[in-house]
Amino acid sequence: MAKKATPATSTYSPSPTTRKTRPPIFRSDDVDWVRPDGRSFHQCRPAFFRTGAVNAASGSAYAEFGNTKVIVSVFGPRESKKAMMYSDIGRLNCSVSYTTFSTPVRGQGSENKEFSSMLHKALEGAIILETFPKTTVDVFALVLESGGSDLPVVISCASLALADAGIMLYDLVASVSVSCFGKNLLIDPTLEEENYQDGSLMITCMPSRYEVTQLTITGEWSTAKINEGMQLCLDASCKLVTIMRSCLKESAATVSEE
Questions:
Q1: In sequence order, what are the residues at sequence separation of 6 or more whose Cβ sits closer than 8 angstroms to the Cβ of residue 62?
Q2: In this structure, how many other beta carbons lie within 10 angstroms of the beta carbon of residue 251?
Q3: Could you give the 3-state DSSP secondary structure of residue 246?
Q4: Which residue of 77, 103, 165, 204 is most buried, as measured by CB atoms within 10 A?
Q5: Is residue 79 within 8 Å of 135, Cβ to Cβ?
Q6: How far is Cα 159 from Cα 69, in angstroms, rounded to an integer?
Q7: What per-residue confidence (pLDDT) applies to 111?
Q8: Model pTM score
């Protein structure tokens, strides 16, 4: 009997020093080309938000962007456990973790310290820390399923969870990323697209205040491409924050009816 071929969805992890061969996901005609999930270059995945996902938390939110699923819990403000001198501003702690079943390679769930630090930087500028002096707000983000653009989804979801917890914010924070494929920019990339990208750009901003709280760029970008990528992310962030506000309004309306 002939041996069956190995499935294409094998969980093989190549050596970091070996560059992956990019699959033919692009067509020769750029005009009619669509991405593997059917989207155009500048089309984001449908976004779903829900607050109050964790009853034991001060505030929480659940976000789903395609196959990317994230839940964020906020605890506090509460007295800091660390002995420290009186401070006029509060303290923010952030943690981003992955479940053991969130990625194709099972059993690799753990805290992502780099993402935890980036989440902290993205949120810190949006929180009015002066409203809870000498206390701490803890933000715990858990990636249930990694489907691409994980960090932007985590940041947006965490902002919604903070608002649900009643934490005073200058504005909601929305985050969007783009991947660079040669001359093309793909917004809100999936995990497959991120694996073969030439570079990435992520913007976190407060749309109502026209302020960017974080900008992250990897790979080689021309000035023109950076400007194009930033504009794409900023435009998408304005639309995303509208969805986030609608979620908060629906949640408030539901509470008032109860």
A1: 49, 50, 51, 53, 69, 70, 71, 72, 157
A2: 18
A3: helix
A4: 204
A5: yes
A6: 15
A7: 65
A8: 0.84
Give residue for tokens 């659940």. 62
Higher-pLDDT residue of 82 and 102 is 102
d(CA 82, CA 137): 13
Between 25-29, 47-51, 175-179, 246-250, the lowest mean confidence (pLDDT) is in 25-29
Per-residue model confidence as pLDDT tens digits over 175-216 = 999 999 888 899 999 998 988 889 999 999 999 998 999 999
DSSP codes, 28-56: S-TTT---TTS--TT-PPPEEEEE---TT
Comparing CA positions, the residue from 148, 189, 207, 145 lying closest to residue 43 is 189
Query: What's the average model confidence in pLDDT over 87-96?
Result: 87
Distance CA 241, CA 163 (A): 12
Question: Which two three-digit tokens encode residue 132?
Answer: 């809870």
Query: Could you count the other beta carbons within 10 Å of the beta carbon of residue 27?
Result: 10
| Percent helix / strand / coil, the chain, rounded to 5 | 30, 30, 45
Lowest model confidence (mean pLDDT) among 23-32, 118-127, 159-168, 181-190: 23-32
Mean pLDDT of 87-102: 86
Residue 193: alpha-carbon gap to chain centroid = 16
Give residue 105's pLDDT: 59
Distance CA 86, CA 106 (A): 44
Cis check: omega of the bond before 152, within 30 degrees of 0: no
Coil/strand/helix, residue 61: strand
Whether the per-residue pLDDT at 8 is higher than 60: the answer is no
| Nearest partner of 212 among 232, 229, 234, 227, judged by Cα | 234
